[in-house]
Amino acid sequence: MSKFIDSSSPWFENLDYDWSILLNQTIIKYENQPANTPIYHQGDQAENIFIVLDGRIRLFMLTPDGKEKAISIAGKNCLLGVNRHPEDNTYFENAITASEAKIASLPYLQFENLIYHNPILVKQYVHLLQEKLRFATTYNLQLSYGSSVKRIYDAFYHLAKTYGVQNNVGTVIQITFTHQELANLIGTSRVTVANTVNDMLKNNLLKKTKGKYLVPDLNRLITG
């Protein structure tokens, strides 16, 4: 069960890749940009790819009626803008900063040329695509067969594993987020998230300390 959960996190953070060959060819596109700064929009011409150097980027799509559908959160060493529609070479999703961020950019054609002529870069690129596919497949199974409550438990597990700092009473999640942001990411309603979080607080699965969530025992989130 733990291995299954670990493989399905929507937070792609502090990835163990070395993109120095790409970075030698990049221009810093955004440096110390505040949260909610657009990087690119769904349907824009996909002229560049981006490498996250610091911070978090929120990836999402918009439905025809304007509703937002979250995809994932890209952190340090994640690539952005590699998903292009083959027919018109436009970006598949939207990318916007979820925190202050620093990002490097590289023309897409230059990226392709460097990637396909360097075995190490190809291996890393394929691995990243595999991780994204694994998440998408697992997420689809969770939406089809899992409960929204279980997805919320899993989300807090991933948040604690990715952004948590341990102390003598548990793991403190260092980033802040709203119930709506969490609901968008896992495919449920804000009310469901709020009610589930309240139940988790009552049952000591979560605690609140100085405005941040603390998880006393990660194993309890796995077992429910």
Protein architecture, described:
By secondary structure, the protein is an alpha+beta fold. It has two domains: 2-142, Jelly Rolls (Sandwich), CATH 2.60.120; 147-223, Arc Repressor Mutant, subunit A (Orthogonal Bundle), CATH 1.10.10. The chain is 39% helix and 27% strand. It contains eight helices and 13 strands. The strands form three sheets. A five-stranded mixed β-sheet has the order 1-6-5-8-3. A hairpin with a 5-residue loop joins strand 5 and strand 6 (68-74). Helix 6 crosses helix 7 (190-202). The relative contact order is 0.16. The mean pLDDT is 91.
Structural topology:
Blueprint: H1 2-6, E1 11-12, H2 20-23, E2 27-33, E3 38-40, E4 48-54, E5 57-62, E6 68-74, E7 79-80, E8 94-97, E9 101-107, H3 108-115, H4 119-145, H5 148-163, E10 164-167, E11 170-173, H6 179-186, H7 190-202, E12 207-209, E13 212-215, H8 218-223
Parallel strand pairs: 1-6
Antiparallel strand pairs: 2-9, 3-8, 4-7, 4-9, 5-6, 5-8, 10-11, 11-13, 12-13
